[in-house]
Specification:
This protein is an alpha/beta fold and 229 residues long. It has one domain: Aldolase class I (TIM Barrel, Alpha-Beta Barrel). It is 33% helix and 19% strand. It is built from eight helices and nine strands.
Length: 229
């Protein structure tokens, strides 16, 4: 079971998360960051430079500008580009363009799932089918109705929807959305994913430094719970 931890904002948090046993570390970045916690491209690059080769470097962007995405990738150099903006803003053909410009880059496409809405009234399965030919991973995450971006809500959704998506595709799926050390084993039991992701539940309740937000005890508990599920 792969364990992915977001949002890494500093070298210190990266070291903490790696030492806690995470397989993937996620860093959100932008040319001109507009969201709290998103780093500049140069800051993200410095974090990734200390990550060992056996830990996957996931770079998250919400940009919808393909040229800007390619330019930023040349600076940050993640192993995997996590597309987490409006899914309909970047078509599969545009993702092919990104991959052509960036040798060996893998794509993690976020698949949005809404809480409290049945599968038949969501587009998640359609998105998975549409994007599977250009995706190396799917990140199935809760989406807020009020935001264009996918994820960072801290809210769970129906894990049976995750199960349906996972069973519909050969793309490795990582599940996210309000997962914690208390509920991750049940989410894994229901959906049988490739991996699990945590952001909000592994943060300090009241971080003293907004660049160092990951609580080592919570990260270790999450990793342990996922690996023992």
């Amino acid at each position: 079971m792969k364990v992915q931890i977001y949002e890494i904002r500093s070298k210190e948090d990266a070291i903490n998360v790696i030492e806690s046993g995470a397989d993937h570390i996620g860093v959100p970045y932008a040319k001109n960051p507009q969201y709290p916690g998103h780093l500049t491209c140069e800051e993200a690059k410095k974090v990734f430079e200390i990550v060992p080769s056996d830990v996957l470097k996931i770079g998250l962007t919400i940009s919808e500008d393909v040229d800007e995405i390619i330019e930023n990738l040349s600076i940050v150099k993640p192993d995997v580009l996590h597309l987490s903006g409006d899914i309909e803003a970047i078509a599969p053909e545009q993702i092919k363009t990104i991959k052509r410009h960036c040798n060996d880059l893998k794509i993690m496409q976020a698949i949005p799932v809404y809480s409290g809405i049945p599968l038949e009234n969501q587009k998640a399965l359609n998105y998975a089918k549409e994007y599977e030919s250009v995706s190396d991973y799917f990140l199935i995450d809760t989406k807020s109705m009020s935001e264009e971006v996918i994820g960072a809500t801290g809210k769970v959704h129906d894990w049976n929807i995750d199960k349906a998506i996972i069973e519909s595709t050969n793309v490795p799926c990582i599940i996210a959305g309000g997962l914690s050390s208390e509920n991750v084993a049940e989410a894994i039991r229901i959906s049988n994913p490739y991996g699990v992701d945590s952001f909000t539940s592994t943060n300090y309740d009241s971080p003293k430094d907004e660049k160092r937000i990951k609580d080592p005890s919570k990260v270790k508990a999450f990793v342990r719970a996922a690996q023992n599920a």
